[in-house]
């Protein structure tokens, strides 16, 4: 409902010159008011949010691929049903988020095309492969765990539609993390081979998961304005630290060792982790991760192979609409 | 011919009998039947509802936020429309 009546781009550009309106907007943000789609907003706020929400949506959709890889090979029917439900949830999350992004005035078709063309990013984490069943446990436990850390503060984001979508997503995400941890627990209580599989998965996923929170605060480009606009409530490093502190005891309970021998606990209880390899992060973002090409190719193939369905649905709807007009005229 | 963009629909769900349908979000579908099915898949995966309405987004007429003052301020200044505006002695009891 929001996209139809949006302020046009031209009015926005003129609005940008309007310092009084910008000040009024900031005052609303400072007063913790939510911004709704038809409200005036600075063009840069619209642009930042469109980029952030659509990237978030792309991540949910691309995130279906590494896990979808294991649906047919889940070890039991119970695990299979749960994984299927989880992958369906990721799809739903993608759709809530596209709908939220669209309220800012860009159509879903355009957003999806930007992703397929490789112009829009998605989370670096989904460019890593899922080699064993333990990877599915690790993704639920750590990747979804990290996503929850990041998404809970977004439930209070200044932009209403994004905050509302996040509330729904967070409610559903907690099942994802628990099912992942349960898989890990089963493996860690199992045979030597199963334990080895769990250790191997943790070793491979730990550092990429820490990178999910984004570059360190000192190097982050978008944080200042995002914080001022209350899109972002905590810095990358703050969220990363919260995640590490929450995760270390969970790993200890599993009997697994975090692959960071230099990790120590401070007197104040925080776990200090070693320096993250940011060159790897940059490489993955630049398209050179282990699975970047695979992921995009899979998305493009699905999109192309679905073209006839979209066409058929559109012509069927057009035919029915015509028939209704004809019947009304009789 | 390029396929047109798939129309947008608003989704309303009644979570329990006795409650009103409430707006839960939007989705894309080429017709009403598909919109209902998609709404079921996207918005009721955990028993969130007993009844769904889908409405083409273009059918909704919305008030302009710029008119907020004109539209809603007159209601705010009429405090005599609220029961607490009137004084009733305590001895009278609950009214």
TrEMBL record, chain B:
Keywords: Oxidoreductase. One of its GO terms (molecular function) is phenylacetyl-CoA 1,2-epoxidase activity. Transmembrane segments: none annotated. Its EC number is 1.14.13.149. Pfam families: PaaB. It is an enzyme of class 1 (oxidoreductase). The keyword Oxidoreductase applies. NCBIfam families: PA_CoA_Oxy2 (TIGR02157). This is 1,2-phenylacetyl-CoA epoxidase subunit B. It comes from Bradyrhizobium cajani.
């Amino acid at each position: 409902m929001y996209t139809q009546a949006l302020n046009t781009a031209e009015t926005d550009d003129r609005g940008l010159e309007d310092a009084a309106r910008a000040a009024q907007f900031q005052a609303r943000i400072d007063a913790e008011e939510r911004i709704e789609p038809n409200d005036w907003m600075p063009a840069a706020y619209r642009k930042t949010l469109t980029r952030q929400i659509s990237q978030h949506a792309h991540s949910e959709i691309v995130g279906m691929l590494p896990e979808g890889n294991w649906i047919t090979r889940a070890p039991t029917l119970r695990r299979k049903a749960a994984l299927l439900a989880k992958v369906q949830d990721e799809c739903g999350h993608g759709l809530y988020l596209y709908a939220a992004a669209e309220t800012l005035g860009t159509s879903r078709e355009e957003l999806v095309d930007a992703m397929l063309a490789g112009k829009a990013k998605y989370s670096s984490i989904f460019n890593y492969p899922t080699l064993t069943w333990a990877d599915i446990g690790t993704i639920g436990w750590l990747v979804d765990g990290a996503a929850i850390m990041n998404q809970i503060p977004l439930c209070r984001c200044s932009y209403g539609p994004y905050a509302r979508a996040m509330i729904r997503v967070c409610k559903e995400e907690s099942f994802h993390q628990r099912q992942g941890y349960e898989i890990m627990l089963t493996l860690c209580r199992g045979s030597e081979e199963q334990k080895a599989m769990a250790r191997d998965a943790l070793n491979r996923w730990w550092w990429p998961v820490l990178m999910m929170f984004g570059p360190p605060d000192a190097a982050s480009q978008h944080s200042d304005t995002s914080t001022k606009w209350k899109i972002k409530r905590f810095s990358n490093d703050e969220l990363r630290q919260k995640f590490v502190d929450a995760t270390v005891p969970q790993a200890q309970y599993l009997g697994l060792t975090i692959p960071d021998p230099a990790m120590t606990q401070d007197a104040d209880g925080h776990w200090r982790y070693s320096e993250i390899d940011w060159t790897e992060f940059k490489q993955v973002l630049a398209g050179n991760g282990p699975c970047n090409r695979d992921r995009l190719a899979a998305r493009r193939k699905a999109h192309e192979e679905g073209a006839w369905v979209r066409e058929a649905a559109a012509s069927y709807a057009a035919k029915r609409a015509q028939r209704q007009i004809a019947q009304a005229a009789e | 011919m390029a396929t047109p963009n798939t129309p947008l629909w608003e989704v309303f769900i009644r979570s329990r009998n006795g409650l009103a349908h409430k707006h839960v979000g939007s989705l894309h579908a080429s017709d009403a039947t598909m919109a209902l099915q998609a709404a079921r898949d996207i918005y009721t995966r955990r028993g969130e509802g007993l009844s769904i309405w889908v409405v083409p987004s273009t059918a909704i007429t919305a008030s302009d936020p710029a008119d907020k003052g004109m539209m809603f301020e007159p209601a705010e200044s009429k405090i005599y429309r609220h029961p607490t505006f009137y004084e009733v002695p305590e001895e009278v009891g609950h009214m």
